[in-house]
UniProtKB/TrEMBL annotation:
InterPro entries, sorted: 5peptide_repeat, Pentapeptide-BTB/POZ_domain
Gene3D superfamilies recorded: E3 ubiquitin-protein ligase SopA
Matching SUPFAM superfamilies: Pentapeptide repeat-like
Protein species of origin: SAR324 cluster bacterium
Source organism superkingdom: Bacteria
One Pfam match: Pentapeptide
PANTHER family: BTB_POZ DOMAIN-CONTAINING PROTEIN KCTD9
Name of the protein: Pentapeptide repeat-containing protein
Length: 232
């Protein structure tokens, strides 16, 4: 009898901690997690610090969800709606977010190394101090994005659009920026040495470095509209 009573009390305690009144003890909402796993979608849900690695969330609706600190490594998020989601501190390394909507999302300090981000929309997103090393951002859209202190080392930024984005202290060492657009972007403190800038368009951008120093240049458009062809 004593054993049954103890088990019952333990169950009540766990409910109070994880599904009842003290949500912060488990961070995420248990009902929200069950809903996501059952339906594949959970907009506006609290999934903070949840373990979601390797899940199949193709076209999932997670708009406005709290995924801060969540583990989404190697998760399939192709064409998912993560607009306005909080992904600060989340682990998205190796995840596939091709065609996903991350507009106005918070990805500050998030881990996105080797993440697939082809055709992703990160317009208005906050990525301060996030790591996108060796990530693939082919044809990605990052209009008015906060990219301060972001590491793009070795990343593929081919044909990406960075219109009016802020690259304060961003590290683009060894990144490929072929045909990327930086119209009116702020790159005054960005580290571009060793990057491939073939066909990149910096028209109207703010630059305080010599692009010819340690970079690969061919048909690169400078802020004043002048086209460099020295490296062709």
């Amino acid at each position: 009898m004593k054993s049954k009573t103890s088990s019952y009390m333990l169950g009540i305690l766990l409910w109070l901690l994880c599904g009842g009144f003290v949500q912060s003890a488990c961070a995420y909402n248990m009902e929200d997690l069950r809903r996501l796993k059952a339906t594949g979608s959970c907009p506006q849900c609290d999934l903070s610090s949840a373990t979601l690695e390797e899940l199949q969330l193709f076209r999932s609706n997670l708009s406005g969800a709290n995924l801060s600190g969540a583990n989404l490594s190697r998760t399939n998020l192709i064409a998912a709606d993560l607009s306005r989601a909080n992904l600060s501190g989340a682990n998205l390394s190796g995840a596939n977010l091709s065609g996903a909507d991350l507009s106005s999302a918070n990805l500050s300090t998030a881990e996105l190394s080797a993440t697939e981000l082809t055709l992703v929309d990160l317009s208005g997103a906050k990525l301060e101090r996030a790591s996108l090393e060796k990530a693939n951002l082919l044809k990605a859209k990052l209009l008015n994005a906060d990219l301060s202190w972001v590491s793009f080392r070795g990343a593929n930024l081919t044909l990406a659009d960075f219109y009016k984005s802020d690259f304060w202290e961003a590290d683009l060492w060894g990144a490929t920026l072929w045909g990327a657009t930086f119209w009116n972007a702020d790159l005054r403190t960005a580290k571009l040495r060793g990057s491939n800038l073939d066909g990149a368009n910096f028209e109207g951008a703010k630059l305080s470095i010599d692009l010819a120093e340690g970079t690969i240049l061919c048909d690169t458009i400078l802020p004043d509209g002048y086209i460099i062809r020295s490296g062709c």
